[in-house]
Each structure stands twice: as C-alpha cells, then as structure tokens.
Amino acid sequence: MKIKFPIVTVLNISIMLLILGGCAQQVPPDGGQKDEIPPKVIGSKPINKTIQFNSEKADIIFDEYIQIKELKNIIISPKITQKPIIVTNGKKLEIQFIKNSLDTNTTYTINIGNAISDIHEGKLIENYNFIFSTGNWIDSSQIKGIILDSETNLPLKDITVALSKLPQNKDSVIYKKEITYLTKTNENGTYNLTNIPSNSFEILAFKDENNNNQIDKSEKIGFYNETLNTDKNNEEINIKVFKQPDYQSDKIIDTVYNKIGIIKFIIYDHINAEIVPLNNSTLNYYKTIKGTEKYDTIQYYLGSSNDSLPQKFTFKRNLINDTITVTGKRIKSKDVEEQTINITVPEKQGDSIHIQFRQPVTEFISEKLIIKQDSIIIQNLEWQKLDPFNFYLRKKLEETINYSLEIKDSATKNIYKKYSKSQNIKFRIPNQEEFGTINIISNSTNSSNILIQLKDNKDIVYNEKLNKGTNILKHIKPGTYILRLVNDTNANNKWDDGNIVTKQQPELIKILNNELKIKANWETEIILTNQDLKFD
User: Which CATH entry fits the domain spanning 251-334: 1.20.120, 3.90.550, 3.40.50, 2.60.40?
Assistant: First the structure.
C-alpha cells in the first residue's frame, strides 16, 4: 500500500533536513601528511653576495609562505644605527633600509636563522646568511668558537657574541663600548662571525636579556684576554661567561640603624674590610653574617643608654681609612625582640651541639640546659662560650643513641634583659655505616693550588686542597653529587668567578663527575691521572 504525504509536509521535512545538515559538525578534509620540511631560500633580490649595493631594499624569496616568529633573532652585522623595517609579503622577506643608514665600503651579513617559519607547522628555516657589500669586495675573515658557562662548563645558546673595534681607550667603561659586528650562539653554544674585515678587535660575549645589542650591568658577560687580528686563524676562540659582580669587594652598600638598637653595615663580598667604633664604650657587641649573593652584614649592638646618640666608626679597606657617622633612634622596651635560640644538633660523630643566639647573651645558666641519654640525665656538662652569640657543648656524644636537649625557661638573658623561653629537641647521631666515603687518589706532583669540591643541588658540601696520595672524603650523605676540581690560582681556598672591571677570568673548573652517586656504607674510589689535572 502506498502512502501519499501532503506536499507541505514533504517541503517541511526537506527544510528541516537542510537546517540540521547546516548545524552538523563540520569535519575538515584529510590534509595529508604533516609538513616536516622547513622553508627554503630559492633566491634573493639582489643576489646573495652582491657588491656595490646601493639600493634601499632587499628581498629574500622562499619556496612557501612564511611568517616572522622572532624578529629579534634577525641579526644584522655590523650593527646599523637606524634599524631597517623588516616584514613578510607572501613568500618574501622584505628588508627596507632607512635612507643613508648603510656605511660605504662595508660588508653586511643578515642572519635570519630561528626567526622565520612556515605559516602552517611553524617549522623554522635552517641557518641562512644574506650577504652584500656597499663596496667593491666581500670581506671574508671569520671568528669561530664556543661560549660556555663559567661554573658548569656547559655550552650556552642564545648568547650574543660581539666585536668592538680597536683602538679604544683601554680604561673605557665596558658598558659604553661601541659594538660593531655581532652574532648569536646556536643550540650547541657555537658561534661563527663571518665576513669580517681585516682589522683588530676586542671580542665579548653576553646574555642580551633586553635585546638592545648593548651590555648591561645585570647581564652575564665573558671576554677574551687577547686582541684578535682577523688576518690570523681564529677558529677556537672559546669564552666563558659569568655573572658580573654587583660591586667591588668590601664595598659598603647601605647602613641601617634600626629601632631595636642594631647598626647594620651591608657590605658586598666582605673579605678584609674592618669597621671599628671610635668610642668602644658605647658599643658592646658585634658579629659578621655571611649573606646570599655576597651581600654580607656586620652588625653592632648598642648599649641601651647610648642608643640614640650618633655613633662614629672607622672603615678600613686597602690601607684607606674613612670615618662613618650613623644616627639612630632610642630603643623602646616594647620594640625589642624576644631572645631566640637556634640549635644545631650533631650530624656525625665528632660534631657537637651548637647553640646560636640572635642577640648577644649576657647570662647563660648552664644548669638549665639538660641533656638526656634515653631517659638518663647526663651529668657534669661543660659549655664553651665562643663569643656572646655562640656556645658549644664540649662533650662528644655517641652514635646511634637517642638524646634529648631541654632548655628550661629563662636559661639565658640578652643585653636588652629579655629571657629565653623553654625549648626541647630530640636527636640521634648517625653511625659511620649510614654515610658513604670517597677516596680520591692522586700520584701527581702537579696538584698545586687545586681544590676538590663536592656539590649537591644547592651547596658545596666538601671543599679541600688536593694532596698527593689518597684524599679521603668522609661522612658523605647518600645522594647524587657533582665532583669537580678547581684551579685555585689565587690560593684563597675557594672558586672565584670572573670580573669584567678588573679583567679577571673565572678560575677554571674541571667536572670529574656530574652524577656521582654515593651510597650508605660504601666506598667510592677515584684515581686521578695527569690528564685529569690539566685545565683547558
């Protein structure tokens, strides 16, 4: 039996199907395989390595549509004071030079690596240099090398390598040097300054954080000791970059005379500087605090009867004495901090309990400090006062024993007549089997001023001079470390980074093991060869 529908109904159904079809999810056609091939340069106008260039525009032509991913990665060398206008137009990169911005008889290199990609997959083009000369020849000298981190010895990418023309005033400030030729390191930390004229240059490397093609004080920097003559072979000019010191060592950065009666002298990289009060009767105590990033502090504590009077000091540094006058506020008892105690318990056999106070202590009642072995009180304890801030227990405690230290209420009093509050802490000294040992054997006599350093992910946990024979590193906590040697050229028993002002290169570091795994109750033996003790 056939059923006939009214015409209106059929039309309505047809319209509904069209509407539903329009609302259905659109599935794009299969685009085929992903384009893994980056754009390629197929030509330029004028042609690459043109001489007698006198135009105000240059075009670089690609085999597909392109976009600018990072304009800052397009590097023009030598530097042009008036930057050109660089845009994409379909498959072309157009470079519009400002009128009269190019120098005469000069070879220019435009490096566009890591700046241009296709418009679909974002594939970056391979390194490409467009070269032209406003004179009758193309300069052909080049300088190659690797840029490394001064502490890790790892290659660094995206570091600007620049040439500064000579002669210049050798005493001129590094941040005002006129940079001419420049390039950047690739992923492997290598650089290649090409098409440089025959001349003598100073070479620098720096992390150009703000992309202004200038060296700023906050940026990492490195330099080469010798002047480079581009007529010679310069294919291994390697440079180590370092964090520039904020100031010269032993420089007073700030003076703080605060309401709790403490005068603070903030000193950058305190080494030998002395700050001595001219009136010793008004100042009772002082201490030196090593800070982070080399910002150290010398603190003087005032007697309560003289806290608002001007205080005079002699600042001694490098045979120069200066007088400093500091004025502060009177102490109010309610503003004085409570006495606080920091307790450091032994981490290994031979260590002692160390009690450190924030403010100077004038009264220390040893009877109110009780140590128990399990539940038994240890008698006849003797505490040694190193200074008004630090006290040590003279008795050596045993391994694997459970101890407790109880500091009773009012066991100590500070110069502001504030008493300490009660405190209790439990601890146990690990035995030798819970640590690892490293035996470093060196039979070479060529180990003068070489340091052994063991570093965890934060700090240097071992730092000693390398001796001939067996060097034993004991009580190493299980974990992963960096083992390295330092060429301590100035024999100050630490690694010193570079200084661009004094032209001091970073002391050389040799990484023996980047992932030295130390196990409990395990000895690791490392034999150093003569080659290990050579620093490149």
Answer: 2.60.40
DSSP H or E stretch at residue 18: helix 7-23
Cβ-contact 463, 451 below 8 angstroms: yes
Query: Can you give the residue ranges of every domain in the chain?
Result: 41-133, 141-241, 251-334, 337-430, 434-528
pLDDT-derived band of residue 512, with 50, 70 and 90 as boundaries?
very high
> In b/e form, how buried is each residue of 119-156, taking b as 16+ CB within 10 angstroms?
eeeebbbeebbbbbbbeeeebebebbbbbbbbbeeebb
Task: Identify the DSSP state of 431.
Answer: P
Q: What's the mean pLDDT in 75-85?
A: 92
Using pLDDT thresholds of 50, 70 and 90, give the confidence band for residue 275: very high
CA distance 443 to 430: 33
Q: What angle do CA 438, 442, 446 make, to 5 degrees?
A: 140
Contact 185, 191 (CB under 8 A): yes
Give the fold, CATH level 3, of 434-528.
Answer: Immunoglobulin-like (2.60.40)
Q: What is the pTM of this model?
A: 0.81
- pLDDT class for 333, splitting at 50, 70, 90? low
Q: Which pair of structure tokens corresponds to residue 78?
A: 């030598």
Report the sign of the C-alpha dihedral through residues 208, 214, 216, 221, in that order.
positive
Written as one letter, the residue type at 214 is Q
Strands 221-223 and 200-206: antiparallel
